[in-house]
Structures are given as structure tokens and as C-alpha cells.
Write a structure and sequence with these properties.
Length: 75
């Protein structure tokens, strides 16, 4: 996310603690564990659709910047 690269990840393990469901499509794309079709759809979206890919990359970068050390020291 800090590199502006959009994420496609499963909602398994600690991922939901890092990437929240309401960020779906804004900063990342989350698929259901074990749902190959869902995973494939999200991956195809990233490969074939530049606008959602670029928007998620920018959104992820923006989200990270809210929590970096420079932002924390401004408060």
C-alpha cells in the first residue's frame, strides 16, 4: 500500500485487522478464502481495468500516509 500498489488479499487471518471491509475497492480488493471464482474476479479486475487499479493504489497510499511517522508527529 505504501508503494501505491493495490492489494488483492483474502479475508483470512490478520488481514481484516489491517484492511477493513469498507475499504474494499477504495484501497484494496478482498476475496473470500477458498472461493477461487471470487479471487479470479478480483485478479482479473486488477489486470484488465486500469481505473479501479489506479484508484485503489492511490487510495492505499493515501491511507498509509495518514498513519506514518510524519503524520503522527504533526498532532
Amino acid at each position: 500500500m505504501s508503494s501505491g500498489v493495490p492489494i488483492v488479499a483474502s479475508s483470512l487471518g490478520g488481514i481484516p485487522n489491517i484492511v477493513f471491509a469498507e475499504q474494499e475497492g477504495k484501497t484494496c480488493f478482498i476475496f473470500t478464502p477458498g472461493d477461487i471464482y471470487d479471487r479470479l474476479c478480483k485478479a482479473k479486475l486488477m489486470l484488465n481495468s486500469p481505473e479501479p487499479r489506479l484508484n485503489a493504489g492511490k487510495g492505499g497510499r493515501s491511507e498509509v500516509e495518514k498513519h506514518d511517522s510524519r503524520a503522527a508527529t504533526k498532532k
